Amino acid sequence: MPAEEHATAPPSLRQRRRAAATQEILDAAERHIAEHGPVALSLRAVARSLQMTVQALYHYFPSRDALVTALVAKAYDDLADAVRAAVDTAADDSDLPGLVVAAEGYRQWAIVHPERFQLLYGTPLRDYEAPAEGPTTQATRRMSAIFERELFDGFSTAQLAAAEAPALSSELAAYLEQLPHFGLGHLPPPATALFLSAWGHLHGLVVLEVFGHTAFLGDHQAELFRMGMRNLLEDVRRRIPEAAVPEPRPGAEP
């Protein structure tokens, strides 16, 4: 059989059944987290809700860590999908910058799925450590790429390298220089510093709201969040110099 045909062969019945069972387990685990919080997650509780034995569940997830990794990766992917959808479906006549739209998509997902958001950004689960360069890392990079593009798209590498950022120590600049980036490719250290600062501001506001620390603001939280994101974007853009106007060639008409 040619390699092309083998590569496009539909999944077997056994593979489809395994995929369906795996999805059913993930759905049950997400329901358990929504009802009891991430800390209460256990294979035994999930298996019981599906009328399975723990031994049967081990055929799909050999450990609690494997299940947690799948849940975290799926949550990041769903969050990234929500952010991407917010940007893609923004009204053409909207005066909201893409970064603000993306941030509001992030906030909205977190508000609707507070327990899954807590799984990602709340108290770390005891004895759990995400696999290095595993699916959770890939999922976070996908979301990072969206925000990098919305924050810095349209600027050249030279402009980003000349961005006004607090003086960086040589050690920090060297560290930022070698960090991977996934939105626009390589980011110079000043742009990376601005990106991380902006991310901390955005994420911090969402965490405060999701965990109930800004409930005293009531229905005004959305308006204040939008104002904060507009101010954040304006501050970042103000720190990036305008592109230099090319010098006219000798003899060229003005």
Low-confidence stretches: none
* Residue fraction in strands: under 5%
CATH domain fold name of the largest domain: Tetracycline Repressor, domain 2
Average pLDDT figure = 88
- Estimate nothing, just give the exact number of structural domains: 2
Instruction: Report the CATH architecture of the largest domain.
Output: Orthogonal Bundle
**Any idea of the CATH class of the largest domain?**
Mainly Alpha
What string gives the helices and strands in order?
HHHHHHHHHHHH
What helical percentage do the residues reach?
A: 55-70%
Total helices: the number is: 12
Based on the structure, what is the oligomeric state of the protein chains?
A: single chain
CATH superfamily of the largest domain, by name, is Tetracycline Repressor, domain 2
User: Sheet bearing the most strands, described?
Assistant: none
Q: Cα distance, first to last residue?
A: 66 Å
Please give the radius of gyration in angstroms: 23 Å
Tell me the structural class.
mainly alpha
